[in-house]
Amino acid sequence: MVSLSVLASQFATFFKEKISQLRLTLSANPPRAPHYPSPLVPPPDFSILPPATEDEILKLILDRHNKQCGLDALPTSLLKHCSCVLARIITRNLSLAAGESPPQLKQSIITPLLKKPSLDKENLSNYRPISNRSTISKIVERVVQSRLTDHLVRNQLLNPLQSAYQKSHSTKTLLLFIHDHLINAIGRQQVTLPLSA
After folding, report:
1. Average pLDDT for residues 103-126, to the nearest whole number?
2. Fewer CB atoms inside 10 Å of the end CB: C or N, the chain?
3. CA–CA separation, 145 vs 49, rounded Å?
């Protein structure tokens, strides 16, 4: 029987190697341009993120589930309860302009999760890493995501056929689009064949 510390080290090594391999693969085969055709006008510079507002941070805190991480300094329910005071402190200390994140916000607790119950539990490749980060880290992520999404939408940089990370563009709308496209093609007596990417 392997000790828990040895098992944790094995998982850490396995996941680190997996990430290293993924980076090598991506650098050898860079992804295609996400927007085709390319925009006619180069987008404006996006090197500085607009600062967060206290109201924005307060809303993000109150919208959080009461789940928490072992890295959280206080329970999420207490953070919510004291959010009127803490939102001001978080906003003041959240420096988006620096473009850097404090080391504490980069930490996460990784839990290996078996992909399917029927898989061999002894084979590390049958697990996927689940990252659990602090509540504040997730709030910062949401702020950055909203800035990036606003920039992409405002400058029409999202592919018009993209069906994720946009309002009113879910998996359901994509399936309805494909279904409608197939039905119309069948109505025109065209051959229809779904292709995988």
Report:
1. 92
2. C
3. 10
